[in-house]
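Hi U.,

Before I forget, here's the chain from the pilot set. I'm dumping it here mostly so it's searchable later in email.
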Amino acid sequence: MIFQNLLFLTFVLMKFTLGKDEKLKSRKLIEQLFAEGKRVKSFPLQLIYLQISHHSEFPIKVGFSVPKRMVKLAVDRNRIKRMMREVYRKNKYLISENIKEPYIFMFIFTAKDELKYDDLEETFKKVFTKFLSKIEEDG
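Structure:
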């Protein structure tokens, strides 16, 4: 009984991670994403996505960006990226359970001011639903 509970807890805890294999680091993939990717927007977030096979056990490779021309201070840009990664980490199950092919994502923050965590989380959920409806349309 204890062993089963431990396995269940391990599975639940492992589900909400954002490991090295899930991060988009390849320059080739990033260039291809910006060249061929499709976009979904919900202010202040923009999601660029591309359905492409990659060498990862996870269905989605993801990157986060806060442009310097929008947020001047590096401290603020880094804080926003940390919040974006955290919101994605906690809510990625909304997407990963509903897709079948591998994708690469880039989330771009397009506002000049920092958002509160709850507002950012709500925006992420809107972007996720727009993304899912758009890939359903495309078939």
